Amino acid sequence: MILPGSPLRPNRFDLLALALALGFLALLLRASQEVSGPFQPTPIALDPRLLPEYALRTAFRMGLALLLSLAFTLIYAPLAAKTRLEPFLVALLDILQSVPILGFLAATAGAFAALFPGRALGYELAAVFAVFTSQAWNMAFSFYQSLKTLPQELEEAATLFRLSPWQRFFRLELPFALPGLVWNAMMSMSGGWFFVVASEAIAVGKTQVELPGIGAYLATAIARGNLGALLEAALAMFVVILLYDQLLFRPLVAWSERFKYEDRPGPQPPRSWLLDLLRRTRVLRQASEAASAWALEALWWLEGRKPRWHLSFPPKLLLLPLGLGMGAGLWSLWHLLAPLGLGEVARVFYLGFLTFLRVMGILLLAALVWVPAGILLGLRPRLAQRVQPLLQFLAAFPANLLYPFFAFLLLRYRLSLEVFAAFLMVLGTQWYILFNAVAGSMALPEDLKEAARSFGLRGVVLWRRLLLPGTFPYLVTGLLTASGGTWNAAIVAEVVQWGSTTLEATGLGSYLAHWALTEGQGPHLLLGIAVMSLYVLVLNRLLWRRLYRLAEARFRL
Amino acid sequence: MLLEARDVAKAYRAGEQAYPVLGGVNLALREGEIVALLGRSGGGKSTLLRILAGLIPPDTGEVRFRGRKVEGPVAGMAMVFQTFALFPWLTVLENVALGLEARGVPRKERLRKAQEAIALIGLRGFAEALPKELSGGMKQRVGFARALVVEPEVLLLDEAFSALDPLTAEGLRGDFLDLWQAGRLSTRAVLMVTHNIEEAVAMADRALILQGSPARIGQEIPIPLPHPRDPNDPRFRALVDAIYEALTLREAVERRLEAELLRLPQAPVGALLSLAEAIARLGGQADLPLLAQEEGLEVDDLFPLLEALELLGFARVEKGDVALTPAGLAWAEAPLEGQKVMFAEHLLRRVPLLAWLHQDLLWRKRLPEEVVLARLEGHLPEPEARRVFAVIREWGRYAGLLGYDERSRVLYLPEAPNEDEASRGA
Q: Is the Cβ pair A162, B130 closer than 8 Å?
């Protein structure tokens, strides 16, 4: 709000913010310069002085993917929530969430490269696309759910005051969905880092494509068996994630507090120095407020002038092309897979079962360790509050950066990857279990804890009657999230490399990794992906969703 | 004639079946009056208000505003919501200006008008605050300012004071009435839905009572008292009594309908017992307004309890008074175990649903919840069926006639009726 008569002189915070913004702009320009240029497969040099540049490129890809995911979300979710395509679009999203896109990396890279022959853009887009697939579905789902759970009284007020469709979107729907959307974007960023590392060094057929970035630096370090360079890459990643958190997500989370619909008493809202700085600026703040007010005003004006157009096309019109497309897809799928034979299908299912055993076994083990630890930690709220950001960071840190260290150790002590692949798979995802156990235990109502104490509940009884049931919904959420990530990690974790030695574990992950490197073997890859998607989908339906419903019905506090 | 409803009917639809809520409602709102709309909870008051506002369409009949058919929200009406319905991310000023924004009023004029409305309703100095920084009373003032700033000819109040504590509600009511009396509002008529009888008598020029199932306007009670009105004035008390009486009147037809017999009132056993004991303390009979005050109960909570006592044959309600029957008196004064046994006897005799369940359980031993719900849903909408099931389950468990296994969702016959609940620890 511009108060009439207030001086429009910049204050010192304005200067600080300006410096920040200019610096950011310069970095952005630098990062985008090379993307559009011709592709020259320059070997990655293991020189720490080049790392800032590589880190910048990686960060740029992440940012681009995040923007694309946001754009996708803002289009897809309203379509799903407001048109008659709803059942179809929701089902599609559900499937997309279960497909391990990581296995497809080589194929998508090839496709994008074909779109922009001879340019770096194709490979860049392939990497960005991989990251996009790790974020977009989650974010779209979150936005869709917010749109479906708008508070009834606000909807009625909006209808009664006759808000126009765009006014409704900017005054009601978007603000209501914001906190969930920001939180989801932040959480799915963790998966994004994992994907960006994996997608910067891809083999497309015979060509080894390396996009300048931390992931490629890492791949080179692995190929050369250079332990020092490995550490440098990990350090660079650490810094990039930290900066993302401080400069983007923390301010966003703190800012989105304002849009929370119910203010339940909970842990203290997060603070952000950057947001505080921006809020203290004078010119910048007033200018941005005036600009947004003006933009909205212009939008209302435009909307008022134009006859309102309604998004209404009969879904039956879509049925024909959709049916044709599906038919063609199924036919070509059959055509591709038929030559493989039933024996191969059975073998892939068997391999999938091995990977399934690894995933479930290691999740169980991780739960046995981290659930008690997390619950105990959550009972000490002050300590837990300090540890939470660290856990969040650990979850975000891409575990595939650490695989080489383990490969090194496995080789050194002659350990079998058949067993230890499972540990690699859970390396990055175990934190979700711990994180949620801590959150659940912190959310236990104080009166229940006091009642337990006054009845002298201790040991097994305390755990069986209070701590485990009370945190159950959180535990299920943690395991569910961890499970998704663990399946994805299987593709990368069942084959690890150190120098010239490659270790392999028998499983669907290594099957996918193997055929991804072999040219012209799309059918195998397709079969592998299909089977893995099937495993994930069935597991979701048979196990996780049931547990979720049980948690909702019985254990919600 | 400002606002008019002609033969408005509405049914709640679930799948194939339709359950009538409103049947043939006629109502007219004239210039210069405040009309209160009263009825039992779940009796269709809110639905009627939303039909009048154009938020939902009636199934048959029509609503006319200044002679024009209402087919959606219209410019001349605004509503104040029970739960405030403020946008938490907008400041007080932006919330108030929202209706003007939707009308395309230019920004400058919008802000000026909003500031005026804020000052009018006593919110000066809060323009830049966010709703969550305000108390309940202040929030509802924003609700009023937001409705008044669009200069509606008809103002609809949907239980606008019921979320506030009594003192705050009285203050806001007084301030609003002052503005209304002084002619400082462009509003020509007010329709208020309320379950607070005293509030209706304090504010309205006449009260309309929704009755029956499906509901119609059953009675109209004029309130010809001059303002300011004194709640201790005998004429005020007489009007309160008259409305109580009108609200407890149920038609004979209504009672005989099977659906009505199934529609058990929302009455927890504990509340029933303490109400019966309270009436017994007051000498076995009591004046309803007095009883409500004594027990600290809102009308919406009191009526279902009275209905349940009547259904069980423990009490009779007549002319705004309630009297315990001899059985009711004995029940209220019996020791704990005796109360259970008597309750069980009355349940079996007077509540057909429970008698049926009990009979069925005697030879089937176990009865899945779905079976019972399916039977109820033959007569009641699904949420109502679930509610009734919860009521009968509670009554049956207390009486030792039913057992219920939470995990398998099955009703069973408890083995030793009265010990069962105690040993299972509910």
A: no
